[in-house]
Amino acid sequence: MDDKTDSDEQRLRTELRERYIRLMSKLSERQVVLDLHEKTTVDGKFAGINSSGSHLAVDMLRTPIGIVDHAVIRCNDAILLTTNMDDLVDSDKRKN
Fold first, then answer.
1. Where is the chain membrane-spanning (predicted)?
2. Fewest Cβ atoms closer than 10 Å to its Cβ: which of 19, 75, 77, 81?
3. Distances in whole angstroms, Cα of residue 96 to Cα of each of 18, 43, 85, 93
4. What are phi and psi of 26, to 5 degrees?
5. Mean of per-residue pLDDT scores for the chain
6. Which of 3.40.50.2300, 1.10.1060.10, 2.30.30.100, 3.40.50.970 is the CATH number of 28-95?
7. Residue 95 pLDDT class (50, 70, 90 cuts)
């Protein structure tokens, strides 16, 4: 690869990482639903994600057998994470 290609790739990687970090910070304290393997669905309040992106922290996790005050979930166990972000989209539009 030439220097221009390397710098373009680095710029794109930086932009993607920044978007990822912004998304994770906007998820903080939001109610989320996690679809897990074995057709299990749990929900709780998103607390954070570790730096490698391999584990999610969720507070007040509601599971089929009860509520866990603070839980760590391996991302490999999650198929899908959903949340309502309509209010974020609306607030971003108001800023512009």
1. none
2. 19
3. 19, 32, 17, 5
4. -70, -25
5. 90
6. 2.30.30.100
7. low
* Pick from 26, 50, 67, 83: nearest CA to 59: 67
Q: Report pLDDT for 85.
A: 84
Tell me the C-alpha distance between 96 and 78, whole Å: 34
**R_g of the chain, CA atoms, integer Å:** 17
| E strand or H helix that includes residue 4 | helix 3-27
Spatial CB neighbours of 62, under 8 Å, sequence gap ≥ 6 = 42, 43, 44
Q: What is the pLDDT of residues 41-68, one digit of tens each?
A: 999 999 999 999 999 999 999 999 999 9
Tokens coding 79: 């198929």
pLDDT at 93 over 90: no
What does the block give as tokens for 73? 């979930």
